[in-house]
Design brief:
Elements lengths: L4 H16 L4 H8 L3 H8 L7 H11 L3 H14 L14 H12 L18 H11 L9
Length: 142
């Protein structure tokens, strides 16, 4: 299974609860009666977490009920394909990951060190930037 943003988020949250309980990955794997490599794949989002496994994790880690419901929702959503997966034959894995990150983002921040982003530009500013980078152009041609 290829790790998705959602499956990585689920694994990271479970890893947080594991660490908060003071358990190593090997200790938790033993408690769950699975191998440590399998737990590692679950925590990194590379292995599917079944409803039964999540229920067992909730019990072992003492996860509060409200958080357990959120984790179960995240587990369900991690199995849902995104619209971009229909284009997997033409999109590279990094591009798919970028699209998935953007879809899952709650906000996007951009920094433009040398140029004011398009939505903030005014006509005079745009004319000066374009003429500075293309001195052969006339303002009337812009």
């Amino acid at each position: 299974m290829r790790a998705t943003v959602r499956s990585r988020r689920l694994g990271a949250r479970l890893g947080h609860y594991r660490a908060a309980r003071g358990l190593s990955g090997a200790q938790l794997a033993a408690e769950l009666s699975i191998g440590q490599p399998q737990w590692s794949r679950m925590e990194t989002g590379k292995a599917k977490i079944t409803p039964a496994a999540l229920h067992h994790l909730v019990q072992v880690l003492g996860i509060p009920e409200t958080d357990a419901r959120k984790l179960d929702e995240l587990r369900r959503r991690s199995a849902e394909p995104g619209w971009w997966q229909d284009y997997g034959d033409i999109l590279s894995e990094p591009v798919e990951m970028l699209i998935e990150l953007e879809v899952e983002a709650s906000w996007i921040r951009s920094y433009e060190g040398h140029v004011i982003p398009g939505l903030l530009q005014i006509r005079d500013y745009a004319e000066r930037i374009i003429t500075a980078s293309s001195p052969h152009m006339r303002v009337a041609d812009i």
